[in-house]
Each structure stands twice: as structure tokens, then as C-alpha cells.
Fold these 2 entries.
Entry 1:
Amino acid sequence: MGEIPESHPRRSSLLARQKLVDAAAEGLLADSAMIAHGRGEAFDYLLGEQTSDSARSAIREASARLLTAERPVISVNGNTVVLAGEDLIRVAAVVGCPIEVNLYYRTPERIARLLTRLAEQRASVAGGPAPDGWSEDWAKAVSSVALLGDGADGSIEGLEGARAICCTNGIGSADIVLVPLEDGDRCEALVEMGKQVVVIDLNPLSRTSRMATVTIVDEVTRAAAALVDEVVSGHAAQGDWDNRAALSEALDIIAGASAGE
């Protein structure tokens, strides 16, 4: 890809696409990764390619739940690692939780490659500046983030095949799981196991969005960056969370965009 001017209105989108193209060539992604990303981009157009007020409210709620949980875990797939891995490592460092690589199309090779990429990202984040408002030893907090996924020894009840595989010291024992870009069946299974599930999903009509405890209807890189700020700020929960209302607000934005408002 040639140089993209800072003024290009599609710059962020084009850079994200190129990251995925490069990652696919390195064997980090499933063959369907670009299809999933393109589907999300279509919804992002209708959402105005910006974080809405309702999404910010969901991010604040997710932050409060992660900070008060006993055993929070962040679950990531290939697209998430490539697009938002460093910010999710920052979130994990602040919250004090592990990150588990958990894939729908699971192979030992992809798990190993994604864990290597996460380890590289963790080293980069540890050597970089701490988020604004963080006053503790940043390098120590980041370096303590455990990266899970290899040698998974647990199972998600209600699922079959490779996508049921998980780590008992990760998703298996978690009381809340942050899962960007999730699939609906697994989201439902995790909820049935009594876990809170926070998802980042640009489609407010998806099964994932409707089954989750808290749905952040936003693009994953924007949401992850905003979540870093929220967990550092440490805001309290906002009371009774109404996920259906949050999804309805997102649908109102899409309907308005479709009507040319």
C-alpha cells in the first residue's frame, strides 16, 4: 500500500485493512477474517464511524464490571489481536487479568503465532508510556499480564468441537469475559455458564449483541482505546444496566443514517 495522506477520510479504515492483509499473509488469521471485517465496516458506516453516546455508556459499564470482578478475562481472536491487541493489553494491565487466545477456527499454529504477536505487543506496551492517570509501575503491570491459549485444558459447556476448548485458568474460571468480535453460540454458552459477557460488536442485531450482558456497539480499535481510559479512571457502575435499551439506541442511529438524517 502506498502512503495514505493524513487528510484521507478513509485513512483509518484503509490502515486497518492493510494490517489484516499483512496478518493473513503471516498466517495469523482465518480465511474468513476479511469477510468478517468488511461486514463490520458496513455497520460502522451507518454508525457514522464514531463512538456514540450509548457506546460510551456501555464502555463505562464494561469498565466498572471488569474492575469489580473477581476473575476477569479478556478473550481475543486473530482480528482483535491485530487491530486492538496493544490497547487490550493496557486494559488487562490495569484490571490485572489474563488474555486468552480463543479461536473459532482453531489450529495449534495460529494459537502459537497469535501468542507470539501478543508477547511482542506486550513488550512494546511495557516499554512505552503509561496511560494518563496511571501512577504505579507500568512496566511491571504490563509484564504481569498472562497470555493464555496454548495447551488449553478446559471446555465451554453446551458447545461442541474446537470452539468449546478453553483454558481452565482463563475463560473456564472467569466470572466476566470481555470478548471482542464474538460468535453468538459461544456468547450464549458463556452466559448459560453464569458468566457476565461483555462484547464489542458493530451489529446491534446480531445474536451476540442480543445475548451479551453488556454490548459495546462500536469499532474494536475505538472501543479498546476508550476502555483503557475508563479502566484507568475507575468510574463506578451506573446502576441497573439495560442492554436492550443500548441496542435500541444504536439501531436508532442506523435508522437515522439510512433515512438520510
Entry 2:
Amino acid sequence: MSEKMRQAWYTADRKIEIRSVDVPALKPGQVKIKTAYAALCASDKHMMTMGILGAKPGMPLGHEASGVIVEVAPGSEASGLKVGDKVVPCPDNICGMCTNCKDGNDVRCTAGDPIAAFSDYIIANARTTFKLPDDADLKHYTLTEPLGCVLRAMELANVKHGETVLITGVGGIGAIMLNAAVLSGAAKITVSEPIASKRAGALAMGAQYAIDPLTEDLKTRSLEITDGKGFNHIFEMSGVLSVAPTLFDIAALRGKITYFAVYPPDYELPVNLYNLYNKELGIQAVIAGLWLLPRAISIIPRLQHDKIIGKILPLADIAQAFELFDQSTYHKILLEF
């Protein structure tokens, strides 16, 4: 009889349920990971509401996880991984052989399969599984993949010491971005966030200013904080459509606006190209890559984990976890296995 495990599936529009499924057999070069924790990401929700990344009902979900190796298949020897190792798997079992992988665009692998992190066990390629320190707190390292995305954003933006930063939206990924901004040496770090508890949490993490966009004018406060100059760097983490086009007015000359959040596939950003030209602004988006995970693992101990991780629920309560996600009460929500 096949071994069974619990696995959360996207089953219909905005619905997720836990199923009992067979634990997949290991193929050469793979490892079997007993999941310890998995984190909810906005993209998990967007897959069920917007159909991003080609998502359709009838598929398992989850991509931010940590766990312990319980089985290693032949062909994995070169990885050095062994049973008992604490690890973080890459969200995708990338093939390493398709054109995108060879061009360094592994996140766009055309032949690999995504992992299913909302499961008791994760089957992952040894080549895309990363060993953690023996004393690692697996709750904390569940933040590795989103931190990797944040590192990519910081790398592309090239934030310099003393440059000013605005972060719009401090949910889970916004809180991690805030932590990274604090570590970067940025100045006048400001968050715009409508939830009072999240504003308070951001200030406790090191933000110097917190704007309530529901009661304060974002442009007016931004110019006050920056002495009329605007922000050198703006990281849009909220995904709120009404916010996206307003950022050009509060960016400094030669400023950079990073659209980090995932927007509906049919949304088109209205851009005044003369304004863009006149300010010499830079616009960019972000998607992470496999090569960032080792760097993220190295920085995890410097994150303010207890301020970022707001709620931990058992897998059985995943529906409640998504309800809490919609209420936007906590920065980051984890599932425990």
C-alpha cells in the first residue's frame, strides 16, 4: 500500500482543501523532505483569485518551506545531502538543461516542476535543495525564499547608504523588505500602511516614519519627510492598484520605483513618459532566482523573525490561515506540520 500524506489543493475559485494523496516515489537525484513549516505568500492567494502563473483549479500549492531530509535517492551523492539534514528546497525543481536555465534564467525553467510545500512531505531535486546549519530554527528559515526575492530587489535597486526609502505595504514580504532596508543603511525609511498594528510593527522594526494612507495624503507626507525631494527608492509591496500610478509624483530625481507586488494579469500601469523622462526615473519589477538562496540563508539570522512571523497554525487550519491573510492582521503566517 502506498504511503499517504496530507496536501493542500486549490480546488475551485478561491477555495483550498486538504486531500490525502500518495507520497510520490523518489526519482534518481531527488530527496524526500519532512516539512516542518510552510509560509503563506500573496502569490498563493493570487493563484486562486487571479490565475497567475497559469494556475488552475486542481493543483497543490505552497512554495516557501523548511524541513528535514528523511530519504535520499541514488544519484544525489554529489549534493552532500544526507538523512537528518535541515534544509530549504527551491520553489521549483528546475531542470538545469533548458535554454532558460542555461541562460541563467532558472526561475523561468520550462521543464521543471514546482514543489508543493503545503504537504507533509516535499519531493525536491537534490541540486535545488540547500542545507541549513544544524542548529537552525526551521521557523525562521521558512522565510528564506521570500528573503531571496527581497535580496534581488535590493540588488536591482542598488540602494546606497544614506538614500531614502519608502515601502508601500508591510505585509509579510513588505516586513522582510523593511528589515533588509534597515540592514542596508538606507535613510528616512518610511512605510505606508493602512493597518495600525502593522504600522506599529514597522516602527518597532526600525522604520523611522509610518504613514496611514487612509487618513494622510501620501504625497504631502512623503515630500515633508524628504524635504521636498521625494524618495530615492520606492518599493511597492501592496499590490493595491490605486497606489501603483501615484508613486511617480513622490519619487526623487533619478529615483527608482520597484514594483514588487503581483498585479492582475490584465492590469496596465498608466505611465506619463514625459514625467518619467523629466525625472530620469527608473522602473523595475522583481522575480527571484536559485542563486540567491545561499545568500538568503546567510542573512536569515539577522532578520527580526519574531516581529515578521505573526501567526503559526497547523496545516489542518489552512482555510483559517487564508482568512487571516485576507484580514491583513499579521505580517507573515506560517503553517506547522
